[in-house]
């Protein structure tokens, strides 16, 4: 059972990372690049080799809208 669980976990992790090794110890810069890749290609691990960004890239933003803390 432990072997099956280990293989299943590894399979799911590989599917989520598109066959690439998992990213660990991410900082804000890497998270913002992952968000940019998500907006450009539709996946967090995808990258694009196109010279120009799609038209929708101009209007969407990676800045999140947070509610103010009312303390």
Written description of the protein model:
It is a single-pass membrane protein. Keywords: Electron transport, Membrane, Mitochondrion, Mitochondrion inner membrane, Respiratory chain, Transmembrane, Transmembrane helix, Transport. Pfam families: MWFE. Its main location: mitochondrion. The chain is an all-alpha fold. It has a domain at 2-47. It is 41% helix and 0% strand. It has helices at residues 2-16, 28-41. The mean pLDDT is 80.
Element-level helix/strand string: HH
Hey, roughly how much beta strand do the residues contain? under 5%
Q: What structural class do you assign from the helix and strand content? A: mainly alpha
Distance between the termini: 49 Å
Q: Helical residue percent? A: 40-55%
Q: If you compute it from the alpha carbons, what radius of gyration comes out, rounded to the nearest whole angstrom?
A: 17 Å
Tally of extended strands? 0
Task: Please give the largest β-sheet.
Answer: none
The total of helices stands at 2
Give the overall average pLDDT.
80
Q: Which parts are unreliable, with pLDDT below 50 for 5 consecutive residues or more? A: none
What's the overall geometry? flat
Pfam family, one: MWFE
Keywords: Electron transport, Membrane, Mitochondrion, Mitochondrion inner membrane, Respiratory chain, Transmembrane, Transmembrane helix, Transport
Main location: mitochondrion
InterPro entries: NADH_Ub_cplx-1_asu_su-1
């Amino acid at each position: 059972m432990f072997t099956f669980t280990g293989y299943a976990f590894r399979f799911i992790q590989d599917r989520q990372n598109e066959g690439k090794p998992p990213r660990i110890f991410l900082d804000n810069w890497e998270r913002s690049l992952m968000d940019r890749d998500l907006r450009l290609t539709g996946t967090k691990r995808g990258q694009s080799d196109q010279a120009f960004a799609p038209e929708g890239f101009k209007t969407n933003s990676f800045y999140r809208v947070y509610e103010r803390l009312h303390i």
